[in-house]
Amino acid sequence: MSRIDKAGAETDLGYRDSITKIEPYGVDHIPDVEKHGKPSSQFYVWFAAGLSFPIMILGFSAAYLGLSLTAGIIAVIVGAVVGSILMGVLSRMGVRLGVPQQIQARGPMGHVGNLPPVAYINVFAGIGWSALNIVVASRALNLMIGIPFWLAAVILAAIMLVIALYGYNMIHFVQKWMSPVLVVLFAWTTVICLINGSSTLQTNTKAAGYVGGAGSWIILGGWFLAFLIAWTPFASDYSRYLPDNRKTSVRAGWFTGLGNFVTMVWLGIVGVFLAGTSTSSDPIVALKGLMGPWFVVALLALLFSLFTQNSLNVYGGAISVQTLGLPFNRKQAVVIICVLAYAVSLWAQAGVYDKFETFLNLTSYFITPYVAVIIMDYFIGGRRDKQRIPELYDKRRILGWGFVSWLVGVLATVPFWQSTLYTGPFAAHFPSFGDLSMYVGFVVALLVFLATYRLKPLWTLRRTATEERAVRPVVGGDLG
After folding, report:
1. Nearest-CA neighbor of 268 among 447, 73, 82?
2. CA–CA gap between residue 110 and residue 102 (Å, rounded)
3. Which pairs from 352-356 meet CB under 8 Å and 24+ separation?
């Protein structure tokens, strides 16, 4: 929890809003004296992060799934709405509690029970997303100036390492000032695509990924939801420094949701439109053909979006490493994530688009039940009470029923999986229902939580009298 001095007060490390100081906090609770910023900062963080080519790749998949232009656009909007609402709710929790999202999960799951999902999230969300973005941006750099992929990846990994090392304030600074740059680049890309393209995308039952009934539509909408689900374990990480009051909490939630929604819908629809005007199955090749001499603008957009996306991925991945209790501080964890992301990018550069969709599915199957448990614990289990924050750092709370809720939720998704790695029996027999895994996992985890949250934890060690006196409650702030 917070660092405590000899007088029993929370230590003031003087971080405040400095962008030149390396962030001193890791997974600690942020003391009130360090709280700063405006809720509007959440819009810039998530808006800038969403200005990225992978969202266009997802929209481009509408042609692969055999969807019409209208069906594709509606799927994009629905997926973005649901995901943005979840992100807004989780962002509010960060304002209230002042701790990272994954630390919050220790409440219902226990200190050890939280380790398996965090380990998975660390590998698939932090490292996986970072590697994906390195691949896309390195290809852009290669096309622009012809340097080898491996060298481009080294340069990009080094830049994102520096941003993530400086931490929370530097990330907010980069997101705020990169937003207008990326808006101009992506807006120009959008205009050229609209001028040179045509809205000819029609339902195609012979498309390689076509699924009858509403299946294709559910899959595409699910991919856009899954994209935001992948962010959810890190939502509170970027709002935990905001002052704890109801007005700030509510506005932070709205700004977070809006920042995610605008970029998802904007670039998702551009991707759908691009799919209807191209004869290539490679979105970058399709974009090059449509942009013509303006292709360099699109390449710059792809390149710069790496920094706004991966600063969050690396920072969140480092939080995961610390949450696991590994013997690394935040700065060391950042270096580890960057090195591993670089290594994975070298492997993933071949067949990156197929690997992207598989990765997206596997991420959502495991994270969605996790999110259900965290949200239910906050609103139903009483986690919004700041007096209970010390529980999140109590290593004697080994295993909670929330872990069971998460595990049962994950297992319940298996029959519904639609992935190149595995197709569940329900998905195989009823393909027209699309991929229902996320929705089943969320609902099952929610129901198991409701049935068990009043029970005593599965495994808790007793404290000594000395340890009992050492646990200091955290107070302050109104209910958000």
Report:
1. 73
2. 11
3. 352/132, 352/135, 352/136, 353/57, 353/282, 353/283, 354/420, 356/54, 356/57, 356/132
Residue closest to 334 by CA, chosen among 19, 26, 21: 26
Residues 333, 274: Cα–Cα separation, whole Å = 38
Q: Which of the two residues, 36 and 197, has the higher pLDDT score?
A: 36
Q: In angstroms, what CA-CA distances link 331 with 96, 166, 319?
A: 26, 9, 10
Distance CA 337, CA 133 (A): 14
Q: Say what the pTM is.
A: 0.91
Position of tokens 């692969």?
Answer: 64
Above 60 in pLDDT, residue 330?
yes
Could you tell me if residue 381 is left (phi over 0), alpha (psi between -120 and 50 degrees) or otherwise beta?
Answer: alpha
Helices (H) and strands (E) in the chain, counts: 19, 2
C-alpha to C-alpha distance for 245 and 263, rounded to whole angstroms: 28
Coil/strand/helix, residue 16? coil
Question: What's the pLDDT tens digit per position in 178-217?
Answer: 999 999 999 999 999 888 876 778 999 999 899 988 999 9
CA distance 362 to 367: 9
Domains of the chain: 43-470 (1.10.4160.10)
